[in-house]
Amino acid sequence: MKVLIIGANGQIGQHVFSKLQSSKAHHAIAMVRKEEQRTKFEEQGARTILVDLEGSIEDIARAAKEADSIVFTAGSGGHTGADKTMMIDLDGAIKSMEAAKLAGVRRFVMVSAIGVHHREKWMESAPYYSAAKHYADVWLTQSGLDYTIIRPGRLTNEGGTGKVAVAVDLDRGSIPREDVASTIVASLENPHTIGKAFDMVSGDTPIEEALRSL
After folding, report:
1. What is the pLDDT of residue 78?
2. pLDDT value, residue 48
3. Assign residue 77 a region: left if phi > 0, alpha if psi is -120 to 50, beta otherwise?
4. Is the distance from CB of 150 to CB of 112 less than 8 angstroms?
5. Which residue intervals of the chain are DSSP H helices?
6. pTM, rounded to two decimals
7. Helical H runs in 43-106?
8. 106 - beta bridge partners?
9. Is residue 129 annotated as a catalytic residue, yes or no?
10. CA 200 distance to own-chain centroid
């Protein structure tokens, strides 16, 4: 499977890239927005495409034309304001969905955030972030694409354990970025996850088993 990673240079994106590159079953296509980022991935032998999410849908669609599936891991980052969050986490995500349809790519895996499907759980410190994630998810569920929405808890840089807890609703918790990446790859390989949206934190269940329980 050829997988376009939108946000390949992000922390989750880099984990997804590494796991796909080391897999005999998949091939990663890295979408990045800076020339120095493209050079880094090309040096690792990856097909790399330079596209800015604030650009056109057509640009994103050209990046997706070789792909069988899309993983959206992009984000504006924790140090930007509401304006950039809306342009990347909301509008960039929606443009990516429109680009997927334009390019004929049906499979789309979205990295969202825990609890954003309930307004009462939105982040008090940055409600615009939760709103952006929420409405991007809503758009995806209505897009007609074969979607999976993964809503991880607080992200850490600890090594992955390969064990998680998943459910439509979970209490807040944390999870290593590596385990989120492993869950993305496992979701691509498991048709049962199509049409599913779920919270996820660290737990006691192996990832593939957890996904089968959805």
Report:
1. 62
2. 95
3. left
4. yes
5. 11-21, 35-42, 57-64, 82-85, 93-103, 127-141, 177-189, 207-212
6. 0.95
7. 57-64, 82-85, 93-103
8. none
9. yes
10. 13
As to burial, measured by CB atoms within 10 angstroms (0-12 exposed, 13-18 middle, 19+ buried), residue 164 is buried
Amino acid at 68: D
| Integer Cα distance of 76 and 90 in angstroms | 10
Inter-residue contact 41 to 8 (CB < 8 Å): yes
Topology adopted by domain 2-212: Rossmann fold (3.40.50)
Query: CB of 150 within 8 A of CB of 166?
Result: no
Classified as helix, coil or strand, 124 is coil
Catalytic residue among 128, 129, 135, 147: 129
Mention every residue, 6+ apart, whose C-beta is less than 8 A from residue 103: 61, 62, 64, 65, 67
User: Can you list the residues of the chain whose pLDDT is less than 70?
Assistant: 78-79
Q: Which amino acid, 185?
A: V
Yes or no: say if 8 and 32 are a contact pair by the CB < 8 Å rule: yes
Using a 10 angstrom Cβ sphere, with 0-12 exposed, 13-18 middle and 19 or more buried, the burial of residue 189 is middle
CB burial readout 23-56, b (16+ within 10 A) else e:
eeebbbbbbbbeeebbebbeeeebbbbebebeee
Domain ranges for the chain, please list them. 2-212
Residue 185: both structure tokens together: 């790859």
- Bridge-based pairing of strands 163-167 and 205-206 is antiparallel
